[in-house]
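Protein in question quoted in full.
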Amino acid sequence: MRINMSNKKFNQTPGSYSPKNKPEILSMAKKLQNNNTKDVYSVKPLNITWDDVYDSTGYLFSFAKSLACAVKNSPWAEYAEDIIATSGFAFRMWVSPPTFALRQPAIWSFDGQKPWVGVENGGLFCEYVGRYWGQDDIEKQKRLEAIANIKKSIDSGIPAVSWDICVCEWGLIVGYDDETQTFSVLGVSGKGEMPYEQLGKRELPLLSVLIITGKSDKSQDAILYDTKKLAVSHLKGSEWCDNAKGLESYPALIRHFEGGFNPDASWNTEYFLGTFGALKYYAWKYFEKMRQTELAELYKGVYDAWKEAFQTKTG
C-alpha cells in the first residue's frame, strides 16, 4: 500500500456513509487485513535551499554549511549561525602542501559530531549514525539505522546531514520515497536523487548521518565557555591528521605561497583558502553576538585577512 504524506486531506460527504458504499468499504477493510506487506511512504522534498547560509567565498566547509542549513530549517533556527562556531568548526584548520588534497578538509573525526554539535558543546540534541573503514560487517545494520533516522527527521520537517550524497562532500537529505527506494538530496552542487542502497557506499564509502532532534537547557554562558575551550583545542592542533594543523597551518601556507608554490595545486589552494576563510566569519559573528569585544575584533581581522588572501588568489 502506498501512502503519500504530502498533507493530503480527505473530504467527507454524506454520500461517504451511504449504505451502497458499505460493500466496497468492507472489501477494502478485508484486503487491508490480509495485506502482509509494509506500508510504502513517500515525502515530498522539503522546500530548502542554501540561500539562508552565508558563504562569503562559495567554498564554506560543506559540513558546516549543511549543519547550519539543517538547524535553520528546524524549530531552533536561532542556533543556525552560532552552531558553526559552537561546534568548533569555525576554528578548525589543517593544510597538506604541496598537493593540498581536496578531501583533506572533508575527512575528520566523524564520530565527534554528536558531542561537538550536541549538549557537550553546541547545546542541541542530536542523533548520529556512522560506519567507517574496516566495519563492512555492520554496513547493512548501520545503513538501515541511518535510513530510519533520516525518515524520522524529514517527517518532522528537518533535513538530515549526510556525507557523500551526490558529490564527495557533505549535504542534506530532504525527502524520501519508499516505492522507488530513493532519497531527494540537496548537495553543494545542486539537487538530485540517491538510491537508499547507495547511502554510505558511494565515492568514498563511509556512512555518516546526523539529525537534529531538540534543544537542551544549556545556558548561553555555558555554551560560550565550552566554545572557547574547543577553539583553544583546535588552534593547538587537536585534529585527526598528521598535517600542519591549528595555528601551524599559517606558516605552512605562507611557505607554500612564498617559496614552494605548486602550480598543479592552484585550484586546490583556492579551495583551502575559501573553505577555512569562510569559516572565520562565523567565529567573528559569534563572539560579536556574545559581546566578546576583544575576540570579535580579533576574528574580524582574521576573517578579513583570509578573505583578502582568497580574493588575491582568485583575482
About this structure: Residues 62-314 form one domain. The two ends are 57 Å apart (CA to CA). The chain has a mean pLDDT of 85. The chain is about 40% helix and 15% strand.
